[in-house]
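Internal tracking record. Fields below are filled automatically when a chain is submitted to the structure queue. Please do not edit lines marked as system-generated. If the sequence contains nonstandard residues, flag them in the REMARKS field before resubmitting.
Queue: standard
Priority: normal
Entity type: single polypeptide chain
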Amino acid sequence: MRRPGRMPVKSLTEYLYFETPSRRAFVNITGQIEELVRKSGIGEGLCLVNAMHITASVFINDDEAGLHGDYERWLERLAPHGPTSQYRHNDTGEDNADAHLKRQVMGREVVVAVTEGRLDFGTWERIFYGEFDGRRKKRVLVKIIGE
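SYSTEM-GENERATED OUTPUT FOLLOWS
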């Protein structure tokens, strides 16, 4: 039921596709998400960005090369790719068990407030697609809802 004086809720659903040439990558997708927020016409609401694959991630952090290198080294220490025989998942013929674990640490999705038609970020916050088992096409869901 629509409340008097309130605008109806609007929504936009879009998919972004990524195919990184390397096994691992961090891709700043902030500009693409900002464009979708503009396209949605929503002034106040929420924006969900969700990696739709179990070896990829979406997260928010600083767009700084040193930090990205730190993530790379830290994640590789937590869940090294090799030897692949150390993981039971790889007994199935896969070689990406480490990618599943890295995704679990980095997260599946983010939700960002939309205020006055813009993503409401902290000073250095940016949205990233994290790839941990690349070289094939994967998708990210963007769902924006609000007034």
